Amino acid sequence: MYFPFIFSLCLYINGEIHGLLFNDIFQVIRIIFFVIILVLYIKSKKKPSPLLWVLIVFEIWVFTTTFLNDFIYWPEALYNALLESTSAVSMGLFIELFKDDGEDLVKGLMIDYEIFIYLNFITVLMYAPGGYAGKYYYFIDHRPQFIHYFFPAICLCALYMKQHKKYVRPAVLLSVITFSIFRTWCATIVVAFVAALGFLASSYVLPKIIPVFKKWRMSFLFIMAVLANIFVVFIYAPGRFGFIDYIITDILKKNTTFTGRDRIWEAAKRMIMEKPLIGYGSYARVEVSDTWEPLHAHNEILQRLFITGIIGLILFLIFHYLFIKNVDHKDRDIYLTVILGLVFGIYITYITEAYAWYFRLLPIFFMAYHYEEIVNKAE
């Protein structure tokens, strides 16, 4: 219990906690913990899952393509790539190393998330509802970063309830998360959260209405999310689809340019065509215009192409293929259904954001992938 707690505390605390002193020290600690986890994993003689192998190859490619690109801040770019890639691989190694000690794994991680989320809740109450992301900085930085903590915490709540059959502690944490999501109202996270709830509800309601219907296949949902991604980025235009305009403007309280993302997407597509095979590396940013600060692509598929090129996108898709192939053959109880609902919510965020493929969300994929080992060992 104690090692998972210390490991995740050091890995999670850096970067997202606004104004924290000694961030550079925590960055070094993240790399040190990668070495520790790698040594422990090798000593355990465990064989990496196919999912972990693909993640390792993908992160090696991220570092390689960053190395191959020529940047003004080249050393900084390499350091950034090293930090993010080792953090991502650490997460995969960490879950697979402790999956056979599922109870300690979940308990240790739960404490960390409770610390972060309850401290963040104090700052949520301090600000007016729905503050603009760039205006209000909460304990967990600003609103778009909440998903990196809220979704894994919900996943852990489901595992905790499955293992211990105790519901008060996770119910309190879930209540704080739900309140925080709707009070701060970051449209992307709200949509992802509602999508996860919809997945959960439909997984139990639809089979009663339509007996033939048994469960949502994640392969179908991933394909639909990718098609929605293509539709929004390549086909949608304001005024062309009135119903979608209504959802964006009246329900989500956004404008039909997706808060200027249409211009970012056009710029990203233009830059991708210049380096389609290997991309620009992890430190690159989309240059929209002289008056705009360089940004990430605000779309997960475009971001993978922009940073890692076609090679990286293929590895990205292979990762999801292996994950979906695994979970689609599992017997789902309500707790696994909750976790897969979170994955579906993440797929939805791929449309308008590029932070969903981030090391702090990877535990959700690996805990779903190894669901039986984690919960059965505890039971």
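[next item in queue]
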Amino acid sequence: MPDMKDFNAGNNGWTELIAKMQETELKQLPENMEFYDRYKLSENFYARMQRLCALERQKVRHARIRGITAAAAALVFYIAASHPYQVASCSHEVMTRFKNYTIFRFDEDDRMRAVLKYEPAYVPSGYKVSVDDAGSMQYSDGRGGVLLFDYMSANASITVDHKSRDFSVLKQEDGRFFYCYEAVMEDEDSVMIWLSQDENTVFKLQGRLSKEEMLKTAQGVRMTEKDS
């Protein structure tokens, strides 16, 4: 073994000894696969992480639902305050208000139903039928004006963009309610939603008409025959 006195002098014996010691220590290190097997994460760890991630996603969904529910509750409170008779007689109605749109669904029963054929008995002057399909009709006035009339089962969902539209509820003598979204801008469409008297069919009327003309057209909707 080299003498310690020769260490500072850079004796080659010391250099070789240190190199062998480092080589011995390196040989004692585990192989790559041994490292992998020793320190790899267990399946149980991955399962726990997946559960934690699922819980976090669920918390986010619940927060969104609470926000939607709060908005819907605020809307119902507003309607109950201004139209108390509506809440009392139409408790099955569902109006879910989101930031930019409202979803209507009047019946939660998902069973298939036969849809009867309807059409307006009155349309504003100059409007003529341009499209007549099952569940949908389109009227044009020849000057770019278009009136859309759609109808479907009451358990269907209808989405209305309520941006730049004034909302009001109109109660009729027959007890029905007409939900009107009147356009604020002249170049935007107004929208009206209502139920048939038997509450099996929901209607949607859309066009650049005044609230009065929308209501007059909606009141004149009549059943013609059963769809095939």
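[queue empty]
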